[in-house]
Amino acid sequence: MENLLKKLDLTSLRLFVAVCQEQNIARAAEREFIASSAVSRRIAEIEAMIGLPVIQRQSRGITVTPVGETVLRYAQAIIGNIEQMSAELSRFSSGAKGRVRLVANLSSIVQFLPEDVAAFGRVFPEVSIELEEENSADVLRIVGEHGADFGICNPVAGSEAFQQVPYREDRLVVLVPGGHRLADVPRVAFEALLADSFVGLRSESALTQLLAQQAASAGRQLDVKIRVGSLDALCRMVHAGLGIAVVPEQVGLLYVNALDVRLLSLSDAWAVRHLIMIFKSRDQLSASAAALVGFLGSKP
């Protein structure tokens, strides 16, 4: 008996269950698309391993012995567990179950990802998502080092080395205090703002680098009085009159009615940015990660 685990196989158990359910070897063989003699041989092998009969063969069918009832009970449990395992594994392979590691920049997280990830969770409730915030340059590094399944960032130097899928459009606007000289101007060019003091994000952010580049193109340098680590803090600094700031439009809209600030559209073409999803290779994405990329890529 101690070697039963090594000797019994799932096919024999499945055929035994079929015989018990049909109460007839011939009908079980027909159901399982196998010869009756092969079924009989499998049953005989089970009996030889156990050393006791599991069925009584009769002219018009079979009856299950008490030993056979015990074998049947455990065989059905084993087969049921295998079927459940197969169903669960199929959800992994289809992307319906699994874990996705996602690294994204601040702009995508504060504007779009919370709602989009929540919507994905309603469609794929068994997929867990680990989301980490990093600046765009670090998004590239982490994905390149296989520290995340894929990343979301603005196109920056080095992003061309990855496969890319468009995610969202990111429009930049100017946030000014309510009493600013341009508070009632709906649209302005970035160059017209370069005499002002700015509140900025940390120097490694893609937005900070973009603004510095555009100021340099105009032959100027940004006068950044204060640097902060979040867009929330940035908006509150503007509200306090400590400077003006360039922020993603969706962020500015969150604060324009809550704080004493105004939003001005930027007339510069570069003020419309694009957020992209990056990964090493689509073939290397897990089914769950591929499902999330496809879901996010379908957003307007």
UniProtKB/TrEMBL annotation:
SUPFAM superfamilies: Periplasmic binding protein-like II, Winged helix' DNA-binding domain. Keywords: DNA-binding, Transcription, Transcription regulation. Gene3D superfamilies: 3.40.190.290, Winged helix-like DNA-binding domain superfamily/Winged helix DNA-binding domain. GO terms for molecular function: DNA binding; DNA-binding transcription factor activity. GO terms for cellular component: cytosol. Residues 8-65 form the HTH lysR-type domain. Belongs to the LysR transcriptional regulatory family. This is HTH-type transcriptional activator CmpR. The lineage of its organism: Bacteria, Pseudomonadati, Pseudomonadota, Betaproteobacteria, Burkholderiales.
